[in-house]
Amino acid sequence: MSTSSPHTVALIEDDDSLREVIAELLATSPDWQLVATWPAVEPALDDLRTSCPDVVLMDIQLPGMSGIEGVAELKKIHPSAQVMMLTVYDNNDRIFNALMAGASGYLLKRDAPGKLLESLDDLLAGGSPMSGAIARKVVQHFQSSSQQKSQEHDLTPRETQILELLVKGSLYKEIAADLGIGVETVRTHLHNIYAKLHVRTRTEAVVKYLGMS
To answer: Hey, what CATH topology would domain 147-211 get?
Structure first.
């Protein structure tokens, strides 16, 4: 990345030594400037009410308000804020709670020295950078969730494909074209899907599918 002036980043982290490591790392890049650090969410939110840096790095386990709560509060103030979690935690609950709260990336602290600058560039370019271990967990979660939903209602692989396309908003003819089958075949599959899900309409099917977990 090459810009006329560096992009700004702020850090919310209660570990003094890690704050120093991150500061030294950012100081090596002409593209990024560390403009503020805080040891907790509350003072950070007070300062961030007037303006927000390009990216906020946020730890999860902090004194007082947690980083996950902090993301949610910051997004209320600045809906377009870009937040990347920087944490030691890689368990599913924390990952998905942080992402649902509004985080755009999730980097493990052990990966930060080698991947932080690249991840910041990726985040600002519209990506959702994650440590490899985190990305794998996300993929496994959605694969498992999809399989579980299908198995619980005895949906066939083809019925699952059609239902997932339905959830995405595809029209019958678009589903037929995507899967290389006729529109009437799509209707037949949908009739079977509705029966298995105990619903009568497309909307009810989508709502029920999204609600299964």
So the answer is: Arc Repressor Mutant, subunit A (1.10.10)
